[in-house]
Design a protein that fits this description.
The complex is a heterodimer of chains A (115) and B (438).
Chain A (H helix, E strand, L loop, with lengths): L1 E10 L9 H20 L3 E7 L5 E4 L4 E4 L7 E11 L2 H8 L10 E6 L4
Antiparallel strand pairs in A: 1-5, 1-6, 2-5, 3-4
Chain B lengths: L9 H17 L4 H22 L5 H20 L6 H8 L6 H4 L3 H15 L6 H12 L4 H8 L3 H15 L13 H21 L5 H19 L7 H14 L2 H4 L19 H14 L7 H14 L8 H14 L3 H15 L1 H9 L12 H12 L3 H13 L4 H16 L6 H4 L12
Helix pairs in contact in B: 1-2, 1-6, 2-3, 3-4, 6-7, 6-10, 7-9, 7-10, 8-9, 10-11, 10-12, 11-12, 12-14, 12-15, 14-15, 15-16, 16-17, 17-18, 18-19, 19-20, 20-21
């Protein structure tokens, strides 16, 4: 079994949330169903966190500071989780059911280095 | 993760409550700010609840979060203008916090009622009032309201903006029990009636949307029934008519989404619980002196609900109720329904005559059920050619697939019948006999 970090990303120019409460609730239900499924199948190592917009990017030894997380990125990281699967193929299969894919986002699947 | 999931329209309903309560506290002039705060609150709830599960009291969580967002928006704007009193009111606990939330259902309902009365402002056109109710109290997006009325999103946004401008002209939400309460109540009832009718008879092709409209109208009318000053006989009658019509919904549309008319509906599929509730409300509505249009419509619906079949319906009573309704609300659509009932009571020839004599019949030009009624009665008289001609005219003005399929089916029935032999006319429950209210 291996651990994988799932990074949920949305394109910076995509409208982040529908303006309809009904659509919002449907999105919530899809995420709840997704985490429920991960948990039921024993994949869920860490729920992770949703991330707020904003923040800062610090680099060049602290000399350069950008506002926001997406100074040079086309995608915004909106949250992350850690899952456990047999291998990368299974992690990919799991990620392919992530709700972020239903509204224009993507999931980056990264193996966590073994200690 | 918390297992108790709120029902499928939780966000919509909460959106209406949050907007109503925060607008009451902050004043109607801050409506736009309130709407934004509510929108952002719901969006953040999606992200937080997806990862953390639902809080113990999701409604209270939302109210607190929306209040905090409204405070920070006001603080941001404060550099330009002074909102100190408003912030004070928000902080002084005029918004129920988590500890008091559960004990305050009545206060929250009050806020929704006051918003409802505010939407029925005399300077706002009736259709815009309905749109406003959907937008502010039912949490429909502009796109969804536009979809329900089959107008473009841009047109609906314009209509809503104009209406909200009128609304925010008043400093506070409508005071329940104010001097013009009765007039406002009449307008509120009318708006809810229109909302329900839009769902029941409207043109929107999406059955789910239409069911939502009916459900919202019933939820809001129930608030009125529970609130003493608003719970007049007319309010009870309106609630009764909604229950009695809604009871037929399960039998009204077949599996393919096509309409099924009253005569051929499987009455065992009518919702007995809603019928009982409707009859109870109708009885409660009888305690006053005034007979409103809602009383008459509810009485007609009740007569249908209690009849074991289309044949065993006391049609003469129904004609009488329509006559009374026409005196209160003269309308070609009411006259059309009366003519259909008359055909049942006194024969298709009398029905046809009544249809042709309808005052203002030209206003039914775009209404598919007028030619459909003509066609149905012609068919009963054996004139399949005339019937087919009218059904084709009806098809040309059909407004959605359900209506279209219903009419195509009827048109096919004209093709098979031979004039004179009337094989199709023998069966008393023949589907093509009548076009009654569904």
């Amino acid at each position: 079994m291996s651990d994988f970090l799932l990074l949920y990303r949305l394109p910076a120019d995509s409208p982040d949330m529908p303006d309809s409460p009904q659509r919002m609730q449907e999105r919530l239900e899809r995420w709840r169903a997704w985490f429920g499924e991960l948990e039921a199948k024993g994949h869920l190592r860490a729920l992770g966190h949703p991330l707020e917009m904003g923040g800062a990017v610090v680099k060049d030894g602290g000399g350069t500071v950008h506002d926001g997380p997406y100074a040079e990125s086309k995608d915004i990281l909106i949250g992350y989780s850690v899952v456990q699967t047999r291998d990368l193929a299974e992690a990919r299969a799991v990620a392919s059911r992530c709700p972020v894919l239903t509204y224009g986002g993507m999931v980056e699947v990264r193996p966590i280095r073994q200690m | 993760m918390n297992a108790t999931a709120p029902d499928e329209h939780f966000f919509r309903r909460e959106s209406g409550r949050l907007v109503a309560t925060l607008t009451r506290v902050l004043g109607v002039q801050h409506l736009a700010l309130v709407e934004d705060a509510v929108q952002e609150t719901l969006a953040s709830a999606v992200e937080v609840w997806a990862f953390r599960g639902l809080p113990d009291n999701p409604s209270a969580w939302l109210m607190t979060a929306a209040r905090n967002r409204a405070i920070s928006s006001l603080r941001r704007e404060r550099t330009a203008r002074r909102f100190a009193p408003e912030i004070g009111r928000l902080e002084d606990g005029e918004v129920p916090g988590p500890e008091s939330y559960g004990r305050l259902p009545a206060a929250l309902a009050d806020d929704e009622l006051r918003m409802m009365f505010s939407c029925s402002h005399p300077d706002i056109a009736e259709d815009a009032q309905v749109a406003l109710v959907l937008s502010l109290l039912c949490g429909f997006s502009a796109q969804e309201v536009a979809g329900a009325f089959l107008v473009s999103r841009a047109a609906m946004e314009k209509r809503l903006t104009r209406a909200k401008k009128v609304l925010s002209g008043s400093a506070r939400l409508f005071e329940l029990g104010a001097g013009d309460f009765d007039a406002r109540l009449a307008a509120v009832l009318r708006a809810l009636y229109l909302l329900f009718s839009e769902g029941y008879h409207g043109a929107c092709p999406d059955a789910v949307v239409r069911l939502d409209l009916c459900r919202e109208a019933m939820r809001l009318v129930a608030l009125l029934v529970d609130h003493t000053p608003a719970a007049t006989p007319a309010t009870h009658a309106l609630a009764a008519l909604m229950c009695l019509h809604a009871a037929r919904l399960p039998a009204r549309v077949d599996e393919a989404g096509a309409l099924t008319d009253l005569a051929r509906q499987d009455r065992s599929r009518w919702d007995a619980r809603l019928i009982a509730r409707g009859l109870e409300l109708l009885e409660a509505s009888a305690r006053g002196e005034v007979v409103s249009e809602y009383h008459l419509e509810a009485a007609i619906a009740a007569t249908h609900a209690l009849a074991p079949s289309a044949e065993q319906t006391p049609w003469q009573d129904i004609v009488g109720l329509y006559d009374a309704l026409l005196r209160i609300r003269p309308s070609p659509v009411v006259a059309l329904n009366r003519a259909v009932a008359l055909a049942e009571a006194e024969g298709p020839q009398r029905g046809l005559e009544a249809l042709r004599e309808i005052e203002g019949v030209e206003r039914l030009a775009e209404y598919p059920f007028y030619p459909a009624a003509l066609a149905t009665l012609e068919l009963r008289l054996g004139d399949t050619t005339a019937a087919a001609r009218h059904f084709r005219a009806a098809l040309r003005s059909a407004r959605n697939d359900g209506e279209r399929r219903f009419l195509e089916e009827r048109l096919r029935e004209c093709g098979g019948a031979t004039p004179g032999r009337g094989s199709r006319r023998q069966a008393p429950a023949s589907p093509a006999r009548r076009r009654g209210p569904c």
